[in-house]
UniProtKB/TrEMBL annotation:
Residues binding Mn(2+), per UniProt: 204, 376
Species this protein is from: Biomphalaria glabrata (Bloodfluke planorb)
UniProt cofactor(s): Mn(2+)
Record-given protein name: Extracellular serine/threonine protein CG31145-like isoform X1
InterPro entries linked to this entry: FAM20 (IPR024869), FAM20_C (IPR009581)
Superkingdom field: Eukaryota
Length: 476
């Protein structure tokens, strides 16, 4: 009786307690596979792993270097950095750190002073918004997402050959007046360059173009034109709307697939045909930039670290470690930001493993004080196990790095997010995802530590003062 009254009066309480017990029990109950995980990790780590902002723990989790750890302790102790935007906090997710730096980006003139268009389509707004110091702002909702969508989906109305390329590269025209540069996915994403192969006979890789755009973006450089993966239909996009130089070469392969080879300097013959399955191919589409020069269509600087493109002749920089001091820092046109721009190029090319940086382009409109444009990134991500130390020559020989670039590398090294993590996440947005083979993603983590080691050695081994190596030139 007493019992029954108790239940009657407290029935809602009983229900609540019972439900709570069940809820708690169900929290602890995990299917068998998760028991294995729980056994392997102490409870606290397990929960941290579930709620940590990343699935990694910084590049150093797999590629810790003792000298770099010491260097970073010194970096974190620098009093002038403690209260600055360059202070690296071990808990902060990388993208929030990057967003803070991006806010400080110096802004210069806009291309709209020089380019006239209707400012309506995404590509028109992009052209007008090109800044003296960066190509685009990924936060600008007025065009950025739409531009990528247009590049991957809009109807192609005319297809030509890019006359400046040694490979078959297309200039593509769209139904809204936009133009794009298309490179073909000629090798599977896991294809590794053969060890005896020279880089200059290397085939261009569209996955490298796409991944380079994302890497440039997550490094906050914004110097690579927006690029997306796109499927091309050879029947529709070449056969129906291509120039004669393309359509004249259309043929069926022995397997019955539709192929063509077009016309170009080096690799346009039937041995290098591009074939569909049965008539579609994958590739990268980059948005076409406005003219870089006033009187000529291309305005460019030859890289001081240009290679000879010869099997045995070496360039001066390859034989002389003093090259930057004697031949680069002394150049009149390399005063101002230019040396640091080239050390950024060195960081970038080392991360992607690109030996083919023969020249860089820039907008003449903005004068000498403007950022470099990193076009042509098709020869990166070819060797996942090999680190091209000579690609980092600008950093090693000049013994300099921009503070903002260093801060981002330090942040990626200590975590919580590694470069492979943020790059993988960024690449997931591409329509042809997955773009990079995991060993290539792993290689960028290894390379972050290598760059930091070279910088720390400028101070510890070459005896340079900190402030001569790490330069805050106000560019983020
Ligand atoms: N997005 C773009 N917008 C405008 N022009 C471009 C763009 N991409 C490439 N170009 C022009 O086309 C030229 C050749 O393109 P790219 O360098 O990518 O082809 P490539 O075959 O790899 O060239 P190379 O044989 O010189 O290495 C570039 O130097 C540039 O002048
Ligand atoms: Mn090239």
């Amino acid at each position: 009786m007493l019992k029954r009254t108790f239940y009657k009066n407290n029935s809602w309480k009983v229900a609540f307690v019972t439900l709570s017990i069940f809820a708690l029990l169900s929290l602890y109950y995990q299917p068998p596979t998760q028991f294995v995980l729980r056994d392997a990790l102490p409870r606290r780590d397990f929960i941290q792993k579930l709620f940590a902002p990343s699935d990694a723990g910084g590049c150093r989790v797999n590629y810790s270097i003792p000298e770099v750890d010491t260097f970073i302790r010194e970096y974190q102790g620098k009093s002038n950095l403690l209260d600055s935007v360059f202070k690296v906090d071990e808990q902060e997710p990388y993208l929030s750190f990057l967003a803070k730096l991006n806010k400080w980006k110096r802004k210069g003139k806009l291309m709209k002073e020089f380019v006239k268009n209707n400012n309506t389509w995404a590509w028109e707004i992009f052209h007008q918004q090109i800044n003296q110091y960066f190509l685009y702002d990924p936060e600008d909702t007025s065009y950025y997402e739409q531009l990528l969508k247009d590049l991957s989906q809009r109807k192609i109305t005319f297809t030509d050959i890019n006359p400046f390329s040694s490979h078959l590269v297309l200039t593509v025209h769209f139904d809204n007046g936009m133009k794009g540069v298309y490179k073909f996915m000629r090798t599977p994403r896991d294809h590794e360059v053969l060890p005896n192969h020279f880089f200059f006979s290397d085939i261009e890789r569209a996955h490298s173009e796409i991944a380079s755009f994302h890497l440039d973006k997550v490094l906050g450089f914004h110097r690579v034109p927006p690029t997306v993966g796109r499927v091309l239909n050879i029947t529709e996009d070449i056969g129906k709307v291509g120039v004669d130089l393309l359509t004249n070469t259309l043929h069926k392969s022995p397997a019955g697939n539709l192929c063509f080879f077009g016309k170009c300097k080096d690799y346009c013959k039937v041995d290098f045909s591009i074939c569909g399955t049965p008539d579609t191919v994958e590739g990268s589409m980059s948005v076409f930039l406005p003219r870089r020069g006033f009187n000529q269509s291309i305005y460019w600087i030859q890289s001081p670290w240009l290679r000879t493109y010869h099997f045995s002749i070496k360039a001066k920089w390859e034989k002389d470690e003093q090259f930057c001091e004697t031949d680069v820092k002394t150049r009149e046109d390399f005063k101002g930001r230019r040396v640091l721009d080239f050390t950024d190029v060195g960081v970038f090319d080392f991360l992607i493993g690109n030996l083919d940086r023969h020249h860089v382009e820039l907008f003449e409109h903005f004068g000498n004080d403007t950022s470099l444009i990193h076009l042509d990134n098709g020869r990166g991500f070819g060797k996942s196990k090999y680190d091209c130390m000579s690609c980092m020559s600008p950093v090693r020989q000049c013994c300099m790095i921009r503070l903002s670039t260093l801060a981002k590398l330090v942040k990626l090294y200590i975590g919580p997010d590694s470069l492979s993590h943020v790059l993988r996440k960024s690449l997931e947005a591409d329509p042809l995802s997955p773009i990079l083979w995991e060993p290539h993603l792993d290689s960028v983590d290894r390379r972050v530590g290598q760059i930091l080691k070279v910088i720390s050695e400028c101070i510890t081994k070459k005896g340079k003062p900190w402030q001569e190596v790490i330069i805050d030139d106000g560019f983020y």
